[in-house]
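Progress note, sequence design subtask.
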C-alpha cells in the first residue's frame, strides 16, 4: 500500500475550488440541483456519512447550489439487489439514484456505460492525492468509475469479559487467537466449557478463503472461478470445517453483530467498520444485561503462511446524467467528502480508513485525534499490522458478485448440513472421530461441486 503522504495544508491548497476537468456549467445557489444517494454507512438514524452530508449541504452545497439527499441506507447485499432491480426496470423498483456506494462487482451488472467516469471531473494532481491501491480498485479499463471514499480491512473482535471467564477455567489465552489454529481450537474448548454455545463467527467465508489461500501461497481463482480443488484451499477449509461441525463456529446466516448483542458469540472476524455495531453490553434471553469489554485483535494468521488480510469496502459511483449540472455536482460532492478533514472525520467515526495519503498519514501519526477510546484501539491494531501484513484486494472478474453470493451460500449450506448430521449421528452412538472425518470430507466435496 502506498503510504507516502502530503501535508494536509497542501491538500487544502490543491483543492480550494474543487475544480475538475469538465466544462463549467450553470450551477448556482438560486437554482439548486438535488442528488439522491444510496449508501451502506450506518443506518438511517445513526450514520457518520449522513452527518457529513448534512454538513456538506449546509456549507459547500449551499454555496454551490447542490443538495445531496440520502434516500436509502442499507447493507452491501441489499444495495446490490436494489441497484440491479432499478437497472433492470423491475416493477416497483425505485429509479437509480444519482450517487451510490457499492462494491466494484456491481458495475458491470448495472452496465458500465451508465456510470460517470470520474477522470472527466478530476485533474491528475487531484487523483494523485489518493492512496494508489485504493484508487486502483475503481478502474475499469481506462475509466475510473468507482472513487474511494472510505476503505476497511478485517480484524478479530473479542468479548473480553466472557472470554476471560472462559480463559480462567480452561487456560486458553488471548495469545492463542493470533493464529487460526488457535482460534479453531479455542472454539472446541469453548463449546465444551459453555455447554454447547458457539464462540466464533466469520462474517464472510469468501473473504476468509481469499486471504487464506493467498497467505498459503495459492491463487484463489483459476480460469475466472474459485479454485476449490487446490491444496491451499483444502488447508484453509479443514480446520475451519472441523470447528463448525463440532459446534464452536457459527455457520448460520446473519451478521455477527446481532449475535454479539445477546452473547450467542463472543468472537468474530469482520470489517473494521463493524465496530459501529458492537455494543458494550449483552442482553440475555431473560432481558438481563451485562457490561462487556471489547478487545480488538489483529487478523489471525495461518501457521506457515504469510500475514495477509483483505482490503475491503465499496466506493462512490455516479450515474451519468444528461443534465451536466448533476455530473458536475456529483464531482464537487465527491471531492468534498474525500478532502482531508472531512474524510478523516467521517472515516474515523465509522471504523474506516481515510483514502488520501495526507489523511491516512495524519491518522496513523497521531491516533489521539480519534476521540472514541474503542475506535482508537481499533486504529492502533491496524497500525500494528502495517508493514507486517499484506493487504489484498478482493478479486474483480466477470460475475464476481454472483459468484461470491453463490460461494457463500454453498459454504454455509455444506457446513450447516454437516453440523446437523454430526449431532444426529453422534447422538445415535456413532464414533465421533470417524463421523467428523467423513462429514468434513463430504462438506468439501459439496463446495467443490457447487455451481459458481
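Output:
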Amino acid at each position: 500500500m502506498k503510504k507516502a503522504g502530503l501535508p494536509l495544508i497542501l491538500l487544502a491548497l490543491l483543492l480550494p475550488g474543487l475544480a475538475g476537468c469538465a466544462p463549467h456549467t450553470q450551477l448556482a445557489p438560486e437554482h439548486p440541483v438535488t442528488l439522491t444517494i444510496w449508501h451502506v454507512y450506518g443506518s438511517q438514524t445513526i450514520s457518520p456519512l449522513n452527518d457529513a452530508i448534512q454538513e456538506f449541504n449546509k456549507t459547500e452545497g449551499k454555496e454551490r447550489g447542490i443538495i445531496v439527499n440520502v434516500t436509502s441506507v442499507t447493507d452491501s447485499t441489499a444495495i446490490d439487489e436494489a441497484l440491479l432491480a432499478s437497472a433492470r426496470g423491475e416493477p416497483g423498483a425505485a429509479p437509480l439514484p444519482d450517487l451510490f456506494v457499492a462494491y466494484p462487482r456491481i458495475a458491470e451488472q448495472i452496465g458500465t456505460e451508465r456510470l460517470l467516469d470520474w477522470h472527466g471531473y478530476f485533474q491528475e494532481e487531484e487523483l494523485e492525492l489518493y492512496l494508489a491501491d485504493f484508487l486502483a480498485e475503481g478502474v475499469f479499463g481506462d475509466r475510473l468509475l468507482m472513487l474511494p471514499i472510505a476503505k476497511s480491512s478485517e480484524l478479530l473482535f473479542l468479548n473480553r469479559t466472557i472470554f476471560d471467564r472462559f480463559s480462567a477455567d480452561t487456560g486458553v489465552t488471548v495469545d492463542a487467537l493470533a493464529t487460526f489454529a488457535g482460534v479453531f481450537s479455542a472454539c472446541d474448548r469453548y463449546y465444551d466449557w459453555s455447554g454447547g454455545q458457539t464462540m466464533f463467527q466469520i462474517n464472510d467465508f469468501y473473504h476468509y478463503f481469499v486471504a487464506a489461500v493467498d497467505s498459503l501461497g495459492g491463487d484463489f481463482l483459476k480460469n475466472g472461478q474459485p479454485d476449490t480443488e487446490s491444496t491451499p484451499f483444502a488447508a484453509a477449509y479443514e480446520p475451519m470445517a472441523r470447528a463448525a461441525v463440532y459446534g464452536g463456529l457459527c455457520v448460520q446466516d446473519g451478521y455477527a453483530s446481532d449475535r454479539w448483542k445477546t452473547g450467542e458469540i463472543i468472537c468474530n472476524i469482520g470489517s473494521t467498520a463493524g465496530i459501529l455495531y458492537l455494543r458494550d453490553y449483552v442482553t440475555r434471553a431473560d432481558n438481563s444485561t451485562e457490561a462487556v469489554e471489547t478487545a480488538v485483535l489483529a487478523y489471525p494468521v495461518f501457521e506457515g503462511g504469510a500475514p495477509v488480510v483483505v482490503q475491503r469496502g465499496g466506493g462512490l459511483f455516479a450515474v451519468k446524467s444528461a443534465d451536466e449540472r448533476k455530473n458536475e455536482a456529483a464531482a464537487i460532492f465527491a471531492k468534498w467528502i474525500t478532502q482531508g478533514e472531512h474524510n478523516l472525520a467521517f472515516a474515523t467515526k465509522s471504523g474506516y480508513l481515510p483514502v488520501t495519503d495526507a489523511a491516512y498519514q495524519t491518522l496513523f501519526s497521531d491516533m489521539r485525534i480519534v476521540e472514541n477510546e474503542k475506535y482508537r484501539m481499533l486504529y492502533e491494531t491496524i497500525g500494528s499490522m502495517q508493514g507486517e501484513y499484506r493487504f489484498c484486494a478482493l478479486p474483480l472478474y466477470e460475475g464476481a458478485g454472483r459468484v461470491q453470493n453463490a460461494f457463500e451460500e454453498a459454504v454455509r449450506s455444506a457446513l450447516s448440513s454437516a453440523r446437523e448430521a454430526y449431532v444426529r449421528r453422534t447422538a445415535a452412538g456413532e464414533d465421533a472421530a470417524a463421523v467428523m472425518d467423513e462429514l468434513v470430507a463430504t462438506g468439501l466435496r459439496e463446495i467443490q461441486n457447487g455451481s459458481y
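Residues 1-20 have pLDDT under 50 and may be disordered. Work on this subtask will continue into the next period as scheduled.
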